[in-house]
Write a structure and sequence with these properties.
Elements (H helix, E strand, L loop, with lengths): L9 H6 L8 H12 L1 H16 L2 H10 L1 H21 L6 H14 L6 H22 L6 H17 L9 H15 L4 H17 L8 H7 L3 H7 L6 H18 L31 H6 L4
Helix pairs in contact: 2-3, 2-8, 3-7, 4-10, 5-6, 5-10, 7-8, 7-9
Length: 292
């Protein structure tokens, strides 16, 4: 979608005329690629961290060694899968092909459905809660409903049973699972430190010295404790949050994006294909298996 002479609330006003079921892909694309692309990526980063607070999930991720060896590729691949699967709609050949690729990657591991459900919940709750706190405007009910519809359809294509169908359902799933399972583990701490190193690499150079402390300051207390990260001074936490809220206030007066945001993957400076996505040691095997 290209906007010739956009007004700040033009997309919001357009979205209000859409149906969250019929137009779910369009609404989700406008939210994630036009209205809140930076916020959505930051919320996705927090979603990454929440996975590490579940010891069984952290143990598997730590065992693969992927974050230590190829952490930046893992980060890029995660964002590219989200983009590729929704670029032409989840049920398009491109969308289904991307999800099949993800399923083949996951097929190498023994992952129970309750963990799949939790990780899927983090991918919607992380960005939505970030936008709720730091976005330049509130999400519309139709946007929340569409994001939930896209998340549920994505999960269905992954073969995950018993999924919620509303945002509140995903939020409740995540909160209940964390209350039951959140706990410190050495694997979770190692993964967190590896991810914080990735955050430092992708941060603008002037912000790199503070990137670790800023990321920790943005963690809620249950998450920080589960990951074994040091408590940050109250004044520093408050300053970081005030800064993000100040950014949101300024953005209310900025023009909207005229073209959709696309993730610039450091891992693939000359471009990529679907066959590049996945753990490096699996690529030969993954690419021998052709999509039906």
């Amino acid at each position: 979608m290209r906007l010739a002479h956009p007004r700040r609330y033009e997309i919001r006003d357009h979205v209000r005329t859409l149906d969250p079921t019929r137009d779910r892909d369009e609404i989700a694309w406008l939210v994630t690629r036009h209205e809140f692309p930076w916020d959505y990526n930051q919320g996705t980063g927090i979603a990454f961290l929440r996975d590490y607070g579940i010891p069984s999930i952290a143990a598997l991720l730590d065992r693969t060694g992927e974050f230590e060896r190829d952490g930046l590729k893992r980060y890029d691949d995660t964002l590219l899968v989200a983009e590729e699967s929704t670029l032409e709609g989840l049920d398009s050949p491109r969308g289904r092909g991307t999800v099949r690729r993800l399923n083949r990657i996951h097929g190498h591991y023994d992952i129970p459905n309750d963990e799949f459900r939790f990780v899927l919940a983090t991918t919607i709750v992380g960005p939505v809660e970030w936008i709720r706190e730091f976005g330049w405007r509130a999400l519309e009910p139709v946007e929340l409903a569409a994001l939930a519809a896209v998340t549920t359809r994505f999960g269905q294509l992954m073969g995950i049973p018993d999924l919620p169908t509303t945002y509140d359902g995903y939020l409740r799933l995540l909160r209940d699972y964390e209350q039951e399972r959140f706990a410190y583990s050495e694997a979770g701490r190692r993964l967190t430190e590896a991810t914080l190193r990735i955050a430092r690499r992708i941060a603008p150079p002037p912000l790199r010295p503070l990137s670790r402390r800023v990321t920790i300051a943005l963690m809620d207390e249950p998450l920080r404790e589960a990951l074994g990260m040091p408590r940050q001074p109250a004044w520093f936490v408050a300053a970081v949050r005030r800064g993000l809220r100040g950014r949101a206030r300024l953005l209310r007066f900025a023009p909207p994006r005229r073209t959709a945001y696309h993730h610039r993957a450091t891992t693939y400076p000359h471009g990529y294909t679907l066959s590049d996505i996945g753990p490096i040691e699996m690529l030969d095997e993954l690419n021998r298996v052709r999509s039906p």
